[in-house]
Amino acid sequence: MNPAVLIASIYVFALAAFLGYQLISRVPPLLHTPLMSATNAISGISLIGSIVIAGAHHSRFSTILGFIAVTTATINVVGGFGITDRMLKMFQKRTPAKLEKAVQK
C-alpha cells in the first residue's frame, strides 16, 4: 500500500472518530431513544445486506463471511431493540403497585 494513501486513511479515520465522539457527546438525553431507534434501522439495513451476501454463493469464503455478518448484525439489532425498550420503560409512569414492588426490592 502506498504510504500517502495509508496516511490519508489514518487521517480520515481519526477525523471521523473525533467528529463522531463530539456529535454523540452533545446529544441531549431526551434524544437518545430516537437516536437509538435510527441506529437500529441502519443495523437492520446492514442485516439485509449481509443476508444477500451470505446467500449469493460467490465462493465458500464469501458465504462464511456473510454468515458471520448475519450473526453479528442480528445480535446488534436485537440488542439495540432491547436497550431501546429499557429506555422507553424509564419514561413510563409507575403505578402505586409497581412503586411498592420497587421499594421492596
Strand content: under 5%
- Describe the main β-sheet briefly: none
- Mass-distribution shape: flat
Number of strands: 0
Annotation field: number of helices: 4
| Overall pLDDT confidence | 82
- Helix amount: over 70%
Structural class: mainly alpha
Order of helices and strands: HHHH
Distance between the termini: 59 Å
Radius of gyration: 20 Å
Question: What number of domains?
Answer: 1
Outline the low-pLDDT stretches.
none
Task: Describe the overall structure.
The chain has 105 residues and is an all-alpha fold. Helix content is 83%, strand content 0%. The chain contains four helices and no strands. Helix 2 (32-55) runs antiparallel to helix 3. The mean pLDDT is 82.
Features:
4 helices; mainly alpha; 105 residues
Summed up, what is this model?
With 105 residues, this protein is mostly helical. It contains 4 helices and no strands.
Could you outline the blueprint of secondary structure elements for this entry?
Blueprint (H helix, E strand, L loop, with lengths): L2 H23 L6 H24 L4 H31 L5 H9 L1
